[in-house]
Amino acid sequence: MLKLQNTLSNTIEEFKPLNGNTVTMYVCGPTVYDYPHLGHARCYITWDILYRYLKFLGYDVKYCRNVTDVDDKILAKAHNENTTAEAISSKYYQIFADAMKALNNLQPDFEPRATKTIGEMIALVKLLISKGYAYEADGDVYFRVKKFDGYGKLSKQPIDDLEAGARVETSSKKEDALDFALWKKDEENGYKSPWGIGRPGWHIECSAMSKKYLGEQIDIHAGGADLIFPHHENEIAQSEAASGKDFVKYWLHNGFVTINKEKMSKSLKNFVTINALLEHYDADTIRFFILTNHYRMPVEFNDEALLSAKTGFKRLQTALDEVSSFAGKENIVEDKNAEEVEKFKNAMDNDLNTSVALSVLFDLASKANSAKANGDKVLAGKYVGTLKMLMSVLGFTCKKSQMSEDELNNRLETIKDKLDFVEDKSIRGYALIDKVIEIRANARAAKNWDLADKIRNTFDEIGIIFKDGKDKTIWLEKE
Questions:
Q1: DSSP string covering 52-98, please?
Q2: Phi/psi at 187 (5° precision)
Q3: Per the omega criterion (within 30 degrees of 0), is the bond before 108 cis?
């Protein structure tokens, strides 16, 4: 039975959905004004794994992850770059979406944008005003925090001790310093509303979008631990004040990614972008690195840890490749009743203990290798098929790491007459690819675009593409 650490109760609870076999799950998505970083990778890989595991357990999961595309930071960036907020949010949303795909995160069932849900936000604010939980003040609308009896129950902070926290602006318009904005007057960048031209506050966005796509009550609301206060605390207040019902059954939060023991963040300018990271490490290595730590614990980022993750994942991938090749497709089967599957589920059921789940994968890899050494294709196929199944549950790509050198040479043979730019005709296989990358890099440096394009087009014919990074070029087999 799946058990999860509920931030609201501060205990590990047995997971029981509100509505039979259906699970509603909301994750706070990005504010799209800059490049996504490793902290985002940690967050969205974590909840991607929960999404995958719930589906593996047989639940019908409805997963919503929003996009905040109206925000002070977006407007500030648009002003600084002399462009529109829409241009900024569109650009960085696409970068975010590409990064999520590159990390092999599944697409959520719903991915609403704040700017497309303005009507629902206005309706929710009007309801809160009608119930006396909110008030208008010169074009702004604020939530009366002290009127909501349960305020502070998620962050475990007595209301008398609370101060206006992150993103809670102090204003002379407020009745109380703790009151937070539901709607902000903004005649330059705003939308029509009963209170004049303005735009929504950050917190009301998630309440409106989760209600629209998942309903007034949802099973799981997840995000980074930095969102507990004020964002999630404020979501609870405004959602429950509006509906009169409990908003979320299970609140889940992942820990920070740290560098030199400090939280990775854009404000501290100590972040590593996902794009930059992918120039040096593949998606499976990054995922493995994140999964070696429990999702609620801080993760210290450094190259040594990532190199260790690369080595660890390579052990799994090598077993997958070599044993699959030995066993043959006809013998590869997923044994869902295997002892190792039960061990895997026991680990994941214990608040997503992915480090123990990884140890089960290594056990399967070891058994698969042993079966191969003993010449048992049937047993090897069962072990490797089960290994691939469980690797997929954790979101690994399970792609063949590289084509064999024989296969590569067979492909190269078909274009040998076009490789006149390689002087040494004796070079073959991987060495030839490395030499071609060197020749192409020199051509690009010399602005010899004709040669660089010729190389790219020639290798494209045999399904090999070159990916240029900041420091080096790598080659990949075309999907």
A1: HHHHHTT-EEEEEE-BB-S-HHHHHHHHHTTS-HHHHHHHHHHHHHH
A2: -75, -15
A3: no
138-159 exposure pattern, b = at least 16 Cβ within 10 A, e = fewer: ebbbbbbbebbeebbbbeebee
What is the pLDDT tens value at each position of the chain, 479 positions in all? 999 999 999 999 999 999 999 999 999 999 999 999 999 999 999 999 999 999 999 999 999 999 999 999 999 999 999 999 999 999 999 999 999 999 999 999 999 999 999 999 999 999 999 999 999 999 999 999 999 999 999 999 887 777 544 344 456 789 998 999 999 999 999 999 999 999 999 999 999 999 999 999 999 999 999 999 999 999 999 999 999 999 999 999 999 888 766 766 666 666 789 998 998 889 999 999 999 999 999 998 888 899 899 899 989 998 998 899 899 999 999 999 999 999 999 999 999 999 999 999 999 999 999 999 999 999 999 999 999 999 999 999 987 656 666 778 888 889 988 889 988 888 888 789 889 999 998 998 899 999 989 998 999 898 888 877 666 677 777 75
d(CA 202, CA 438): 49
323-to-24, 284, 311, 406 alpha-carbon distances in Å:
39, 19, 18, 17
What token pair was written down for 436? Answer: 């071609």
Q: Which residues contact 93 (CB under 8 A, 6 or more apart)?
A: 30, 32, 67, 69, 113
**Delimiting residues of CATH 3.40.50.620 domain(s) in the chain:** 3-135+148-156+203-263
Q: Domain 3-135+148-156+203-263: state its class.
A: alpha beta
**pTM metric for this prediction:** 0.83
Query: 124, 120, 119: which is closest to 143 by C-alpha?
Result: 124
CATH among 3.90.870.10, 1.20.120.790, 1.10.287.110, 1.20.120.640 for 315-393: 1.20.120.640
> Which residues of the chain form CATH 1.20.120.640?
315-393
Classify 413 as helix, strand or coil.
helix
In the block, which residue shows the tokens 């706070």? 28
- DSSP output for 432-468: HHHHHHHHHHHHHHTT-HHHHHHHHHHHHTTTEEEEE
